[in-house]
């Protein structure tokens, strides 16, 4: 199985609200573009306070509306069905895990077998199992397809969540779905990612304007790799964090470019848009 860049986490905090919006954003983050984006939501940590909110059911309902007819689901170019199903099988072999939805091929497709053609899929893995050394790597393996792992935590296991997030490789994007400032600060002060969204509208996908590789955020600039594009993209307000590590008896430095974006208020008049 190939390794890609960005196994991205989302933590849904203890303050319940705007359930329809949060469910829609979770579906978009995990399954838009058939999950073939480096910022796709790969694992979802949900606080137990949301258990009776209908959040998982709404995510499932959104995911099950995706179809080939409107191109809201499609072929995966890097993961075929055998690889996808093997990953599902390995996760379902973990005690207490269960298939939440998906796991089957798209109906009525003519996608060549060299590509993947799977429905949006989610598997629940109990937190205590996910954290075990023998299961952690498989639970945090990115497969670059419409797939995510879901688990549940509570106040007493929050520290375990923080350790898990920092134990993952490729810290690209992340989301803290909460308007509780104290909760936000606890997560943000203990985790490092390229971009972290925080607030009720937090997402893993949808990079800010200063991430465009073109002048002034204009996609027509086509400035990828040019000196001007590099200046406009990387000279903005970012935090450069150097982390020194010992590897093979040598001292090396890892540099992270960190951006935290707050997006808290869901408008009262918000209406769910079509999936993409």
Considering the chains and any ligands shown, give keywords for the structure:
2 domains, 9 strands, globular, 276 residues, Aldehyde Dehydrogenase, Chain A, domain 2, alpha/beta, 8 helices
Structural class: alpha/beta
Number of strands: 9
**Total of domains:** 2
Whole-Å distance between the termini?
Answer: 27 Å
Major sheet summary line: 9 strands, mixed
Number of helical segments with 4 or more residues: 8
Q: What would you call the shape? A: globular
Q: How is this structure best summarized?
A:
26% of the residues lie in helices and 21% in strands. With 276 residues, it is an alpha/beta fold. Helix 1 packs across helix 2 (55-63).
Written account of the structure:
With 276 residues, the chain is α/β, with parallel strands linked by helices. The protein has 2 domains: 8-207, Aldehyde Dehydrogenase, Chain A, domain 2 (3-Layer(aba) Sandwich); 208-266, no CATH class. The chain has helices spanning 19-31, 55-63, 81-92, 127-130, 133-139, 158-167, 181-188, 227-234, and strands spanning 8-12, 41-47, 98-101, 121-124, 147-153, 173-177, 195-198, 239-247, 250-262. Strands 3-4-5-2-1-6-7-9-8 form a 9-stranded mixed β-sheet, sandwiched between helices. The two termini are 27 Å apart.
């Amino acid at each position: 199985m190939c390794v890609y860049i960005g196994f991205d986490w989302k933590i849904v905090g203890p303050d319940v609200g705007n359930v329809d919006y949060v469910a829609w954003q979770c579906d978009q983050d995990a399954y838009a573009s058939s999950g073939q984006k480096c910022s796709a939501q790969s694992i979802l940590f949900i606080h137990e306070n949301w258990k009776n909110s209908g959040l998982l059911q709404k995510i499932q309902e959104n995911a099950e509306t995706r179809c080939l007819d409107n191109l809201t689901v499609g072929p995966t170019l890097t993961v075929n069905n055998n690889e996808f199903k093997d990953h599902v099988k390995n996760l379902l072999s973990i005690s207490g895990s269960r298939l939440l939805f998906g796991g089957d091929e798209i109906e009525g497709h003519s996608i060549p077998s060299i590509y993947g053609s799977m429905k949006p899929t989610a598997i629940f893995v109990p937190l205590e199992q996910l954290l075990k050394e023998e299961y952690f790597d498989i639970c945090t393996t990115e497969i670059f397809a419409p797939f995510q792992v879901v688990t549940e935590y509570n106040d007493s296991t929050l520290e375990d969540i923080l350790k898990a997030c920092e134990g993952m490789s490729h810290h690209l994007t992340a989301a803290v779905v909460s308007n509780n400032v104290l909760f936000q600060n606890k997560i943000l002060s203990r985790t490092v990612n390229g971009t972290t969204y925080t607030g009720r509208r937090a997402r893993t996908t949808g990079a800010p304007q200063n991430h465009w590789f073109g002048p002034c955020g204009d996609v027509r600039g086509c400035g990828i790799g040019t000196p001007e594009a590099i200046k406009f993209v990387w000279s903005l307000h970012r935090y450069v964090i150097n982390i020194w590590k010992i590897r093979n008896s040598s001292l090396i430095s890892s540099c992270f470019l960190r951006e935290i974006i707050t997006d808290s208020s869901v408008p009262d008049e918000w209406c769910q848009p079509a999936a993409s």
